[in-house]
Automatic annotation (TrEMBL):
<dbReference type="InterPro" id="IPR003439">
    <property type="entry name" value="ABC_transporter-like_ATP-bd"/>
</dbReference>
<dbReference type="InterPro" id="IPR017871">
    <property type="entry name" value="ABC_transporter-like_CS"/>
</dbReference>
<dbReference type="Pfam" id="PF00005">
    <property type="entry name" value="ABC_tran"/>
</dbReference>
<keyword id="KW-0067">ATP-binding</keyword>
<feature type="domain" description="ABC transporter">
    <location>
        <begin position="1"/>
        <end position="233"/>
    </location>
</feature>
<protein>
    <submittedName>
        <fullName>ABC transporter ATP-binding protein</fullName>
    </submittedName>
</protein>
<dbReference type="InterPro" id="IPR027417">
    <property type="entry name" value="P-loop_NTPase"/>
</dbReference>
<dbReference type="InterPro" id="IPR003593">
    <property type="entry name" value="AAA+_ATPase"/>
</dbReference>
<keyword id="KW-0547">Nucleotide-binding</keyword>
<dbReference type="GO" id="GO:0005524">
    <property type="term" value="F:ATP binding"/>
</dbReference>
<dbReference type="InterPro" id="IPR050093">
    <property type="entry name" value="ABC_SmlMolc_Importer"/>
</dbReference>
<keyword id="KW-0813">Transport</keyword>
<dbReference type="GO" id="GO:0016887">
    <property type="term" value="F:ATP hydrolysis activity"/>
</dbReference>
Length: 358
């Protein structure tokens, strides 16, 4: 198990992070510059926290009070960087072999050739990095790390340098390479929500150097707890609540004169906002006076390849964004539909100290 509890003063804020991670893929997600890479670098021993402790499988790697700071090379942690950082003057084989310095020639040969097979680079042993595609370079970087049999594998935006169309394939490749060849702990840094959801088991959400939520990925995406977490996971509608009334079985949130009903099991004393994914907003003709159903006008429409974002103004002048499939846009535009905020899709949020109001 990895245990982390560290602080480090950065340029614009203090990184204060405390979490544990077990075997499987744990994703660290958050906006650009929120401290994700500094966290990985601190684990790898490339940056030194100001205080706190880090241990891996009960072995202390860093402890500010006990003066422990295990050198980077002695931590048994593998690190795959954003740009793979392969040695340009070394062949695929030599790049992978690099991590095995000091081992016998026979061991090196066996381990390298086994890894080359596993990451499907047979035939490329004598190629140089600039003769490989982005995906092949990524596999060399992964092989170079896995060959050292690390206890912890750090992946910092491993897909950011790749074209969109190969990303999906390589993601699945990465998952199957890891499933077949690695049983340790993986920390994956990304700011791509879809990627995080597809690849990770557990998630840690960051904002300005703080953990704002963590847990099983399904829970984090389905039940964001605060406005900052909702923003990080890509919720486009985070609406301020003026007051809350509890009634039997549900609560009523008042927003600028509009009543929104929410199941009471979600209630929390310090709720400040309601959130709903734009994809979960519904349009309805039948339920004229149904709960959470409102008239609207359309402010503007942004058409994507498959999906359109419709910026709506509700009857009380609150603006929300609804995402609909392109072939459903006409029905919304020309119909006499009302917009519905389905009760089961709403979540109540509190404001965290690190998240801006509104
Ligand atoms: N040693 C350091 N001392 C002070 N500030 C630092 C140090 N290292 C990094 N920073 C700053 O800390 C902030 C967080 O950087 P970090 O690279 O961890 O962000 P990130 O979340 O990984 O961002 P991105 O997603 O863009 O890679 C940045 O403003 C960076 O300039």
């Amino acid at each position: 198990m990895l245990k982390v509890d560290i602080t480090k003063t950065l340029k614009h804020f203090q990184l204060t992070t405390s979490f544990t991670a077990e075997a499987g893929i744990t994703g660290i997600i958050g906006p650009s510059g929120c401290g994700k890479s500094v966290t990985l670098q601190s684990l790898a021993g490339l940056q030194t926290p100001d205080s706190g402790e880090i241990s891996l499988n009960n072995r202390p790697l860093f402890h500010s009070e006990h003066g422990i700071h295990v050198k980077s090379k002695d931590r048994n942690i593998g690190y795959v960087f954003q740009n793979y950082a392969l040695f340009p003057h070394l062949t695929v084989e030599k790049n992978i072999e690099y991590g095995l310095k000091g081992r016998s020639s026979l061991e090196k040969k066996q381990k390298v050739s086994s890894l080359i097979k596993k990451v499907q680079l047979t035939g490329y042993e004598n190629h140089y990095p600039n003769q490989l595609s982005g995906g092949q370079q990524q596999r060399v970087a992964l092989a170079r790390t896995l060959v050292t049999e690390p206890d912890l594998l750090l992946l910092d935006e491993p897909f950011s340098a790749l074209d969109h169309h190969v990303k999906h394939i390589l993601e699945q490749e990465l998952v199957s390479i890891l499933q077949e060849n690695y049983s340790g702990i993986v920390l994956l840094v990304t700011h791509n929500m879809e990627e995080a959801y597809r690849l990770c088991d557990q998630l840690i959400l960051y904002d300005k150097g703080q953990i704002i939520q963590s847990g099983k990925k399904e829970d984090v995406f389905q039940k964001p707890e605060n406005t900052a977490a909702a923003r990080v996971i890509g919720c486009k509608n985070i609406l301020p609540v003026d007051s809350i009334t509890k009634t039997n079985g549900y609560i009523t949130c008042r927003m600028e004169g509009l009543n929104v009903k929410v199941p009471s099991r979600h209630v929390s004393d310090n709720t400040t906002h309601i959130g709903i994914y734009s994809e979960n907003i519904a349009f309805t003709k039948e339920k004229e006076d149904a709960d959470n159903t409102y008239s609207f006008t359309i402010n503007n429409v942004v058409k994507g390849i498959h999906q359109t974002d419709i910026n709506l103004r509700l009857e009380n002048e609150i603006d929300i964004i609804a995402s609909v499939l392109n072939n459903e846009v006409d029905a919304v535009w020309h119909g006499e539909a009302k917009v519905e905020l389905p009760m089961s899709q709403l979540f109540l949020l509190k404001t965290t100290s690190s998240s801006p109001q509104g």
